[in-house]
Amino acid sequence: METLQNLSEEDTKKRYIEPALSKAKWDFESIKMEYGVKAKDYEFSEGKIDIKTGKRDKSTIKKADYVLFYNKIALAVLEAKAYKYEDSEGIEQAKNYAKALKAPFAFSSSGKGFVKYTLTKDFKGVAKENLPLNAFPSPRELYEDYKKWQNLTDDNLLQTHCDLSQTTPRYYQNNAINAALIATQKGQSRILLVLATGTGKTLIAYQIAHRLFNQTLPNGKKIEKILYLADRNELINTDTTRTFKSFAKGIYKIENRNFKSGYSLYFGIYQQFISGSEENGDKVEHYKKLKPDFFDLIFIDECHRGSARADSTWREILEYFSSALQIGMTATPKYNKEQRESQEIGELEEREDDNIDYFGEPVYQYSLQQGIEDGYLAPFSVVELLSNVVQEGYTPELGKRDEEGREIPQETFTSPDFNRTIYLKPQIRFVAKEVSKFLHHTLKNPYAKTIIFCEDQRHALLMKDALQDENKQEMAKDSNYITRITSDDNEGKALLDDFKSVSKRYPVIATTSQLLSMGVDTQMVQVIVIDKIVRDKSLFKQMIGRGTRLNEFLESKGKTHFYVLDFKGIARDFLNDPDFDGEVEFIGTDEVREREKKPENTSQENETEPNDLPPDIKDPPIKHTIDGEEIQVYMQDKSVIILRNVNGVLTPITQSLESFSGEKLQNTKAFESYLDTLRTGDKATREELLNKLEEKGIFIQELGQMDKFKNCDEFDILLSLAKGTQALSRTQRAKKANKFLESLQPKARELLELLLEKYAQGGIDELDSSVFVNEPFASKYNLTTIAQIFKEYGGLNAILQNLKNALYKEVS
Questions:
Q1: Integer Cα distance of 754 and 749 in angstroms
Q2: 59 phi and psi, to 5 degrees?
Q3: Cα–Cα–Cα angle for 24, 25, 29, rounded to 5 degrees
Q4: Are 300 and 288 in contact (CB under 8 A)?
Q5: How many angstroms separate the CA atoms of 791 and 78, rounded?
Q6: What is the DSSP code (8-state) at residue 439?
Q7: How far apart are the first and last CA of the chain?
Q8: Residue 540, SS3 per DSSP
């Protein structure tokens, strides 16, 4: 028994767990995922990027001991532990991995038997079962259990394969593909997939199309003609069409409202299907040239807009082709949880800003938070830059006139008025100056791709002009250093592909209002600037999404994270919303509603930006453009909002890291033990403590990079945070050992004085016996001599500990 208790985890696997799996016909030499990845020691994330260092934290890589696949579907996760543990020891980790992989079964074992959890459909509840070592289910048995769990009576659509000729779907992409196919297999005709911006929705659409093409659906319809529908040409480009490579010979992009037959895959925007408006008497329903059953499968890109709205003219396109399987994809479904709750209890008759009804609840979600945690999306920091006029407003002096000579009303204009009612040029110049300073001096990279979101197209033009004045040297190198990319700026729009390019340097800075906010793949963007009021969570998330793209090539180019410069103070409210970046919890499932009236629409919907007034407003309000040296605009406040993992939760920190960490530290009773570990522990123990503190939100290592703590010991940073006192530098800390040094013989004192000099430069890791083999010791003393010098003080380790005790008197 003693021998068994000493078995390592690996030995337990080989002696007990794997033989039990082999007996149940799980052959790990041949059972692989479709992707050729062995199901043993299965890694399924990249590892989160540390925003401080730009490097991946390998400890965050998700790696399961065993993932059991059958028919290309993850059925179960099995975690193994050493024999000395209980069989249930690894079940929580197995359950968490099973939830991520959407596998309904979680197993754990330490070699004596198996603990089995069957998860509920929402992956929140479980049913537990204990199995003997010889009773593990076979692949076929577990797959049949899976089909029952999914309520599947047929699985013919699951027999098809992904196209792996160029790329391998990531685990969440595979989850989304399988979820869509399973919903289709069950007869669902409208399907919603919600995945964060930058996670590869186009690739997912392609794999679904590839697997369903020429397949027969449960309703008898064969998938032969597929439509990929978007609301802007920018969303259907060569990159999009190139992704659907197995359809290369059968692709047609609809142009000039010419619907050709004989193709398998069609790309089109709504404006090709409907034009004009009822109001102008020129509405044409071009889609009626086709039979209602012409398309068998329709993908709707960015489906939270356009046709997804119940009051949209474009909705009738989807309703006309209602016999087709329709799959909507978005990062931001418009779903108003509060209104749903109010409606359910009878306080609200009708919901607004909620377009989830058409597709129903999503069959799969992958959030921004999950993407950052997995290392597939770039983490970000928010820098809040609020001027005095943004915070206090602007009141023009009596008789002040705008640039057109009109007198400005005597009232206080607040931040929402800027660039809507008035264009305040000094504020625009302030933003341009701060953005330029950030690129040149903070990032030290004037070529970091930057998007500036403005209120409207004129604001974007004024911002472009102000930026050009701030960056004359860069403009002299290339006139396209700064450009405006808006729907009415044809010259700027012509530069969109160059701005999106990961290989072309120019343009670097793009000012826009709406055009770049959604669906445009701006992979190299490292700075997002917000200079417009945004109330809509979906729009804000789409704007943030312009910077989240991340891949191996981008990392090689230096992009590992990005920044959001917030000149309106709106980001913190969104980031403090607990629903902002996690999965949306849906409340209520409604039938599709009757649309009482569809408002008139034009063929230009979503091609223009909100620069023009609605047609029913005859006299547009006057917009004043204001300049003047007497208007003083300056920085009133500056704060940084950063996202950090605190106790397993991605937390927006809206105060200084020093204050945040200090508050966390002051609420712990373990402060003295932390100090003692830093004083007495070896290097590995200290690093373990610092990582533990960081998990609790006490960011000692990151604070050590600040100027005020740069030359301080971790010990003194901790003291400063807890006591609110100024931290001693290592040079000042070293002086605390003077009295101890005076008690030593000259040679011992000389050695320790040299050691303290190294400590002052490099920190507590220098107070280790291993440093004596290096200079300045090696040229003067050998290790035998050093040992002899310290012999009378109890030896090398003893005198080093006494030195630490003298240094850190607070806990010695």
A1: 9
A2: -70, -15
A3: 130
A4: no
A5: 54
A6: I
A7: 44
A8: helix
Residue 323 tokens read as: 């016999």
Token reading at 289? 């040239």
- Spatial separation of the C-alpha atoms in residues 422 and 418, rounded to whole Å: 5
Mean pLDDT of 62-75: 90
The mean pLDDT of 286-295, rounded to a whole number, is: 93
Residues 655-670 as b or e (16 or more Cβ within 10 Å = b)? eebbebbbebbeeeee
pLDDT for the residue 736: 87
Buried/exposed 536-571: b ≥16 CB within 10 Å, e otherwise? ebbbbbbbbbbbbbbbeebbeeebbbbbbbbbbbbb
- HSE at residue 477, side-chain half, CA atoms within 13 A, is 11
Backbone dihedral angles phi then psi of residue 709, each to the nearest 5 degrees: -115, 5
Distance (Å) of CA 102 to CA 11, 155, 270, 654, 784: 29, 17, 34, 34, 61
Nearest to 88 by CA among 108, 104, 74: 108
Query: What are the DSSP calls for 254-277, one per residue?
Result: -BTTB--SS-SEEEEEGGGT-BS-
pLDDT digits (tens, 9 = 90+) for 420-478: 889 999 999 999 999 999 999 888 899 999 999 999 989 999 999 999 999 999 999 99
The pTM (predicted TM-score) of the whole model is 0.76
When mean pLDDT is compared across 255-269, 280-294, 354-368, the lowest value belongs to 354-368
Listed as own residue / partner, the contacts of 156-161 with beta carbons closer than 8 Å and 24 or more positions apart are 156/185, 156/215, 156/216, 157/181, 157/184, 157/185, 157/211, 157/212, 157/215, 157/217, 158/71, 158/72, 158/73, 158/182, 158/185, 159/71, 160/210, 160/211, 160/212, 160/215, 161/34, 161/72, 161/211
- Which residue spans within 364-520 are E strands per DSSP? 364-366, 380-387, 422-424, 449-453, 482-484, 509-512
- What's the rounded mean pLDDT across residues 582-603? 39
| Tens digit of each residue's pLDDT (9 = 90 or more) over 201-219 | 999 999 999 999 999 999 9
Q: Residue 707 has which token pair?
A: 């100027």
Question: How far is the C-alpha of 423 from the C-alpha of 462, rounded, in Å?
Answer: 9
Q: 230 - beta bridge partners? A: 269
What is the C-alpha separation between 99 and 107, in angstroms, rounded? 12
Return d(Cα 439, Cα 91) in angstroms, integer: 48
Other beta carbons within 10 angstroms of residue 236's beta carbon come to: 21
Residue whose token pair is 């030195």 = 803
CB of 343 closer than 8 Å to CB of 349:
yes
What are the distances in angstroms from CA 396 to CA 400, 462, 620? Answer: 6, 20, 22
Neighbours of 71 (CB within 10 A): 15
How far is it, in rounded angstroms, from Cα 99 to Cα 103?
A: 6
496, 512 contact by CB (below 8 A): no
Give pLDDT tens digits for 168-196. 899 999 999 999 999 999 999 999 999 99
Instruction: Please list the residues that pair with 284 across neighbouring strands.
Output: 275
Q: Are 231 and 602 in contact (CB under 8 A)?
A: no
Place of tokens 């709707």: 300
What is the H or E stretch that residue 42 is in? Answer: strand 40-43
Q: Assess contact for 641 and 575: CB atoms under 8 A.
A: yes
Q: Nearest to residue 311, comparing CAs of 258, 245, 358, 254?
A: 358
Give me the DSSP letters along 638-707: EEEEEEEEETTEEEEE-S-HHHHHHHHHHT-S-HHHHHHHHHH--HHHHHHHHHHHHHTT--HHHHTTSG
Residue burial 209-231, b: 16+ Cβ < 10 Å; e: rest: bbbbbebebeeebebebbbbbbb
> Which residues is 267 bridged to in the sheet?
228, 253
Cα 361 to chain centroid distance, Å, stands at 22
In the numeric block, the tokens 């940073």 are attached to: 717
Return the higher-pLDDT residue of 753 and 614. 753
